[in-house]
Amino acid sequence: MPLSATPDVIPLYLESHAARSGAHTAAFGLGSAQEESHDAAAAGASHQAAYAGQPRIDELSTRYGVRVPEQSLRSFGTYFNAFPASYWRRWTPVRQVNLAVTTSGAGQIIVYRSNARGAIQRHDMATVTGDGTTLFELPLTAFGDGGWYWFDVITGDAPLTILGAQWTADSSAARTEGTFSIAMTTMNKVSYVLDNIALLSRDPDLREKLDVMYVVDQGSDRLSDHAELAPLQEAMGDQLRIIEQGNIGGSGGFSRGMYEASTNGSSTYVINTDDDIDIEPESLLRMITFADYTRTPMLVGAHMFDLNNRSVLHAFGESVDPWAIQPRVTIPESTLGHDFAAEPLRSTPWLHRRADVDYNGWWTCLIPTETVREIGLSLPVFIKWDDAEYGLRAKKAGYPTVSLPGAAVWHITWTDKNDALDWQIYFHERNRIITALLHSGYERGGRVLTESQSIDVKHLLSMQYYTQAARLYAQTDVLRGPDVLHGEIGTKLPELRQMAQEHDDSVTRPDPDSFPDVQVTKPPRKGKPFSAPHRALLPLWTVKAMGRQLLASPPERARRHPQAQVAHQDAKWWTLSHYDSAVVSNAEGTKVAWYQRRPEQVRAMLTRSARTHLDLYRQWNRLRDQYRAAAEEITSFPAWERTFAANPAPARPGIDDRDGSGESSDETAESAPA
Asked: What is the CA radius of gyration of the chain?
């Protein structure tokens, strides 16, 4: 049951209504039969009404039990309590699991299973009276493409208490029984980190498996500055180590933690985690247990729920499109941002299909330390694409990745971030091209260069000149080759932030009233909002729009007053291209910027974009060979040791005690031993 039983998380653990699958019948894969839906609205509505509403919060008073009132149904066919049978069937030698349910009182326990289409099937049932444990033996011989197991409980005239329930497997089928270290990298998010340390310190089951929690602190507001750390350090002892180093990004922080875990002589696994997450501790135990049972060592990732909307699953499983080198969902019919409170697991067919992935985001991902020792650490790319590239590299070396249902954390989702427009776009662009050079099997990277150039055009049409300047900088840096990556890992961010001051679209203010008032000079045709051009007319439309951007000077009035105020969600390229100036809000809704059309910048940047893409096209094969030849060295332990040593935690005059050399006297800020 949830650690904190709030209404927004209860649907992930327990439900109080019956469900129909929502699955469709099929004509043996031929697609000729009429589809018939078994959804909850069409059938069983009266049955649902009998069990409507969420379980009462006071029913969930313990971590591993629940009180079921009389004349009630409680279903454990939920994200955190159903058993992901198809994943165990695919990746482990286990062919039978046992479900043991310990109860007090009278009622019925019904075990259900599903298939890859999401069709629900009753598997077994038992009537219980008094106190005892009911055991179900559940085969895994099916579930080839998907499916779950779960159980429901129904009571009669008296309540029933579930004292505990466990899914177990024969321990002799396990490949190993491992321990783990955590690699958490942080920058100025002290409260999140302290909360996560405190949570882990109170969990004896996790502490039994934990070797060391490495917190790599790269911020100016450091954990060691806060008195709240001392009691946590005392409680954790040698299981907590704070490492201070310079800001060399997520790839530098994770690489440091991976390095430490892979050289400490005890950890079987290292779990990379972001700092600004809320952990479901049981997830870590499930990831470790699953990793112990896999036929061969593999990476095991957790899913991400929305920290601000906790019943919403942000992504179920992701792969890399080999033609475009872009993330894509593995299950085509899946929904980004699926809300379990509105559409439960049992009633959502696509959630029952197994998602096979290329990588898992490093918000939380387990990596065997033997994998790290064999294929090295992260690419030295600061942020963006480090996790995806590592998954692709591990897969080539024989270490696949699974995104394991039932294991998850809560994290701020990308929809609330502005990273496609701010300084991070440099790393998006550069690291995507580098990933293509390293892993694309297509001539000149498939669609990467043509798509990159079209994105350049869209930013120029949108008056996003800082974003485009950062992209051009990234493309130029790719051409410089891999040898500069380590040396410049800590210098790019300051350069990008300085560059932002040179462009209107990146200078933000708190609200629109900070700018001159809006004066409309040319309203939309017939009052209709601007819409995307039809695909067939897109080339002609783009030429016309770009011609205006290149040649027509903006009217003087548009230089003095923005022509519109545009919300972030409406700031599409086909909308912004119609304006000479506009005030545009950011994704977080905290600031606005005044975009102003500048034909001279468009001309210069469009020329540079054509030149850099032509250079990338001509030199692709040479760059591909160069990056692939250097990959083993730049991800190696010795290369990273030099980078750690070159980037100690910077001195803060008046705050840190220094030894006079300008470097921290704390040994945790020194480079790791060879």
From this structure: 27
Q: Answer yes or no: are the C-beta atoms of 95 and 124 closer than 8 Å.
A: no
Q: What fold, for 180-317+357-415?
A: Spore Coat Polysaccharide Biosynthesis Protein SpsA; Chain A (3.90.550)
Q: What are the pLDDT digits (tens) for 610-653?
A: 999 999 999 999 999 999 999 999 999 999 999 999 999 998 77
If you average pLDDT over every residue of the chain, what do you get?
90
Determine the Cα–Cα distance for residues 576 and 671; give it in Å rounded to an integer. Answer: 48
Residue 392, token pair as written in the block: 């692709």
Q: What is the DSSP letter of 444?
A: G
Residues 6+ positions from 632 with CB-CB distance below 8 Å: 376
Token pair recorded at residue 557? 């009035």
Rounded CA separation 609/574 (Å): 20
Fold designation for 10-169: Spore Coat Polysaccharide Biosynthesis Protein SpsA; Chain A (3.90.550)
Question: Which residue, chain included where needed, has tokens 């050079």?
Answer: 437
Which amino acids are annotated catalytic? 387
Interatomic CA distance for residues 319 and 388, integer angstroms = 8
Residues of each domain in the chain carrying CATH 3.90.550.60: 10-169, 180-317+357-415
Q: In what order do the strands lie in the sheet with 107-114?
A: 73-75, 149-154, 107-114, 120-128
Q: Which of 242, 275, 276 is nearest to 256 (CA)?
A: 242
456: pLDDT strictly greater than 60: yes
Phi–psi pair at 67, nearest 5 degrees: -100, 120
* β-strand pairing of 66-68 with 508-509: unpaired
Report the C-alpha gap between 645 and 344 in whole angstroms.
50
Residue percentage of the chain with pLDDT more than 90: 74
Mean pLDDT of 458-462: 93
Q: For 131-170, write each residue's pLDDT tens digit.
A: 999 999 999 999 999 999 999 999 999 999 999 999 999 9
Q: Which range among 306-320, 359-373, 541-555 shows the weakest confidence by mean pLDDT?
A: 541-555
Tell me if 283 sits within 8 A of 79, measured CB to CB: no
Pairing type for strands 210-217 and 240-244 reads parallel
Beta carbons within 8 Å of 238's beta carbon, 6+ residues apart: 212
Contact 630, 252 (CB under 8 A): no
Confidence of residue 53 (pLDDT cuts 50, 70, 90): low
- Put simply, whether the predicted model's pTM sits higher than 0.85 gets the answer yes
Strand partners, 304: 315, 409
Quick one: which of 377, 398, 396 has its CA closest to 387?
Answer: 377
User: Which DSSP symbol is given to 93?
Assistant: S
The H or E element spanning position 118 is none
Quote the Cα angle for 331-334-335, to 5°: 150
